């Protein structure tokens, strides 16, 4: 805090959100008796930052402080960068309180938080991201945050912080550098299996559909994109909705990565600070482009980003606009999306499993034994024309789902949610601890040292199928990848002919299915 003849200049550290990242900002507060009383904020402050003037004024008065009848100018550095959000309330108020109490603020300290009109500190999104920013950048310092956001930062091991409930508590540490009681984050992660909720959709609720269930198992074990095609009432959506109960918990590293995304979007709350369950995001074709992809001002992560390390479910895929479906090409290939607008450029991680359903035509009954289809050939072609060949080529498994006749037989334990989950956890753990998935992702299908050893018969089968079906290089990689997954499900070291045939069938099913529609 610097003082002139009748001027006080106070600098406070804080940060602002830029996509998922935090950027350092210095809040300069100039308070002087010269000129008419005013309160202004400069430095490319958005409307939400400009509104902090009224929140700060009311919060200070409600907390028992006398708001200075002076000229107050707040400058946000760097001044050429757009700044938004409500977390600037606390650092601005802290600077004014330091002036009123004629005491200095603690050094190497970030102030971050939104104020209520009563002077209390509200839950503020982004505290988790700020903590990660300090830890990863190697900065020495601590953060002062709302008590209601403490749950986010106390999970970050080694982070020094002080939680505050209101502005009155701040006066207790002003002018002090020693003796300030700090709290430190600790690694908290519980890898305990959660009980299945009563209202959860289970695989046991679906009678029959053995092939579709098997394909779903292969999909979840190897993280292969899957699409179910069938008439209404065949169980396509039920199959997709049974996925969350079979998904294992996120690893600690993935949990931190996903929580970072949810914190930036304000989807954490005072009871949920660490996202441990694998995300499952369901999309409807009425959703907007910004809602699915992300965007806006201030920026908000879309469903594609929120599905990171989880599942993104498109119900009735052909009903979505073509421009949204075409946008899927980048995240499906690169596992991230790049968004460029006039005032920002952001990269959002989006490593998700695509699950989709579709009717076979506009009326939904093409090929059905229950009801005659009323669509013309042109209508069927037009219905699926929204889905480009490039998108279809990135879907590993396409499974026709037909109506099953009622059966009084009970569901086998080998088709139960519990049994599937056990297999999925085993296979995914094996893949995570090996180089198999990385090898396939790079398209290195000839690298036998990574677990893709084929005997002569299996290799011959693979080569013949590739030639006769005119399979693209990407599809060849997908077939080999699925073969490896199927072998791991069967706990086989070597890929056998049966594994290869099953994997090929998921691609030939794709070809035969869409040859009917185009």
From TrEMBL:
Pfam families: ChlI, Mg_chelatase, Mg_chelatase_C. InterPro entries: AAA+_ATPase, CHLI-like, Mg_chelat-rel, Mg_chelat-rel_C, Mg_chelatse_chII-like_cat_dom, P-loop_NTPase, Ribosomal_Su5_D2-typ_SF, Ribsml_uS5_D2-typ_fold_subgr. Residues 222-405 form the AAA+ ATPase domain. The keyword Mitochondrion does not apply. Keywords: ATP-binding, Nucleotide-binding. The keyword ATP-binding applies. One of its GO terms (molecular function) is ATP binding. Belongs to the Mg-chelatase subunits D/I family. ComM subfamily. This is ATP-binding protein. It comes from candidate division WWE3 bacterium. The lineage of its organism: Bacteria, Katanobacteria.
């Amino acid at each position: 805090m610097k003082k002139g003849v009748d001027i006080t200049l106070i600098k406070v550290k804080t940060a602002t959100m830029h996509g998922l990242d935090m950027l350092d900002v210095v809040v300069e507060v100039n308070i002087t008796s010269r000129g008419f009383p005013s309160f202004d904020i400069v430095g490319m402050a958005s409307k939400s930052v400009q509104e902090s003037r009224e929140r700060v004024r009311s919060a200070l008065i409600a907390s028992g402080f006398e708001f200075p009848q002076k000229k107050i100018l707040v400058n946000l550095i760097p001044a050429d960068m757009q700044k938004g959000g409500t977390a600037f309330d606390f650092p601005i108020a802290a600077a004014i309180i330091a002036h009123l109490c004629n005491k200095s603020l603690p050094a190497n300290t970030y102030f971050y938080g939104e104020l209520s009109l009563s002077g209390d500190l509200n839950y503020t999104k982004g505290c988790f991201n700020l903590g990660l920013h300090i830890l990863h950048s190697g900065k020495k310092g601590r953060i002062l945050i709302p008590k209601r956001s403490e749950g986010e930062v106390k999970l970050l091991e080694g982070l020094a912080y002080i939680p505050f409930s209101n502005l009155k508590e701040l006066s207790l540490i002003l002018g002090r550098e020693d003796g300030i009681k700090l709290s430190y984050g600790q690694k908290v992660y519980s890898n305990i299996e959660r009980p299945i909720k009563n209202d959860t959709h289970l695989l046991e609720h679906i009678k029959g559909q053995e092939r579709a269930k098997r394909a779903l198992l292969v999909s979840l074990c190897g993280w292969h994109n899957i699409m179910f095609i069938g008439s209404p009432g065949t169980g396509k959506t039920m199959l997709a909705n049974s996925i969350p109960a079979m998904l294992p918990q996120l690893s600690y590293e993935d949990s931190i990565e996903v929580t970072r995304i949810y914190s930036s979007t304000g989807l954490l709350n005072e009871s949920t600070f660490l996202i441990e369950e694998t995300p499952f995001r369901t999309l409807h074709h009425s959703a907007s482009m910004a809602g699915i992809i992300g965007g806006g001002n201030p920026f908000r992560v879309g469903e594609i980003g929120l599905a990171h390390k989880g599942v993104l479910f498109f119900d009735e895929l052909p009903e979505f606009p073509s421009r949204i479906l075409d946008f899927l090409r980048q995240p499906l290939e690169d596992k991230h999306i790049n968004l460029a607008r006039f005032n920002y450029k952001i990269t959002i991680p989006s490593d998700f499993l695509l699950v989709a359903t579709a009717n076979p035509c506009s009326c939904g009954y093409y090929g059905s034994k229950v009801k005659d289809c009323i669509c013309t050939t042109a209508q069927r072609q037009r219905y699926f024309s929204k889905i480009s060949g490039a998108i279809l080529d990135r879907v590993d498994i396409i499974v026709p789902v037909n109506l099953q006749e009622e059966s009084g037989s009970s569901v086998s334990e080998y088709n139960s949610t519990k049994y599937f989950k056990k297999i999925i956890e085993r296979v995914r753990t094996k893949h995570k601890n090996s180089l198999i998935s990385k090898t396939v992702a790079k398209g290195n299908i000839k690298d036998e040292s990574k677990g893709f050893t084929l005997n002569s018969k299996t290799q011959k089968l693979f080569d013949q199928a590739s030639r006769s079906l005119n399979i693209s290089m990407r599809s060849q990689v997908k077939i080999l990848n699925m073969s490896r997954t199927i072998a791991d499900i069967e706990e086989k070291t070597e890929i056998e002919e049966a594994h290869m045939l099953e994997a090929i069938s998921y691609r030939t099913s794709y070809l035969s299915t869409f040859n009917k529609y185009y």
